[in-house]
Specification:
The protein is of the alpha/beta class. About 40% of the residues lie in helices and about 15% in strands.
């Protein structure tokens, strides 16, 4: 890698798993450009926490479902890199996402289009747009879901979209190999965050039901997934490439 200061770009880094990953990277001296969609206040809080941990950060607004804005985002990212003392970045985490509870019976074209825009088109085109700013020898982590492996009621749009992300990861790894860029995918299980309206975190019945299906007897938290994302970006995992890592405590095994 060509720059002394290592930089990560983490979409959806203002909350949940992205936030946890950014903070863990900060403790290793890795600065971040984190994105938020609406909650600038939450993003600013993460920036402050990253600085307290010993690294630096910049928060940029980004809607990963609107690819037309990716060119402007790349320009802002270039400016942010200068602020952070670098010309290029080293790590990309395609983390931002939205939930869907559509079934085969009630799924609409609008829902399909929206999920495709966020979960497949977004990571594909954002990665493509940012590659000129990325150092050779860097690493990319995409975020999938345990629902790409296990079918669950009400996830007939969301689960297959995440399965597509897993296939995309392998193709990214193949095509970026000549640049020494490794690409892996993390598939979380049920995580207690505000995702999907906070149902896993806030609904005791849902939480208990999912925990009962998990070998370790509980649902996960951001602190269970963030270390895996950060770990896959480290040199310790330099020879791991094109792999799917499920972080789910052993759900429906």
């Amino acid at each position: 890698m060509t720059n002394e200061t290592r930089i990560a770009i983490i979409t959806g880094g203002s909350r949940g798993m992205g936030r946890d990953a950014a903070l863990r990277l900060a403790r290793r001296g890795i600065s971040s450009i984190i994105t938020y969609n609406e909650r600038r206040d939450a993003a600013d809080n993460v920036v402050s926490a990253i600085r307290e941990a010993g690294a630096d950060a910049v928060a940029l607004q980004l809607d990963v479902g609107k690819a037309a804005g990716f060119g402007d985002f790349a320009a802002h990212a270039r400016e942010a890199l200068t602020t952070l003392g670098a010309e290029r970045f080293d790590y990309l985490v395609n983390n931002a996402g939205t939930s869907s509870t559509a079934t085969l019976a009630d799924g609409t074209k609008a829902e399909l289009d929206a999920q495709f825009a966020v979960h497949f088109k977004g990571p594909y085109l954002l990665t493509q747009t940012l590659l000129p700013l990325m150092n050779d020898g860097g690493r990319i982590v995409n975020i999938s879901s345990g629902l790409a492996r296990v079918a669950f009621p009400g996830r007939t749009v969301y689960g297959p979209m995440k399965a597509a992300v897993e296939a995309l990861t392998r193709y990214m790894a193949l095509e970026l190999g000549p640049r020494g860029i490794a690409v892996n995918v993390v598939a979380p299980g049920a995580i207690a965050t505000d995702f999907s309206g906070g149902v896993v975190r806030d609904n005791p019945d849902v939480n208990k039901a999912l925990a009962s299906q998990t070998a370790l007897g509980r649902v996960g938290g951001p602190e269970d997934v963030g270390p895996v994302i950060a770990g896959l970006l480290s040199d310790d995992f330099g020879w791991v490439n094109a792999q799917r890592i499920e972080v789910a405590g052993g759900v429906q095994i």
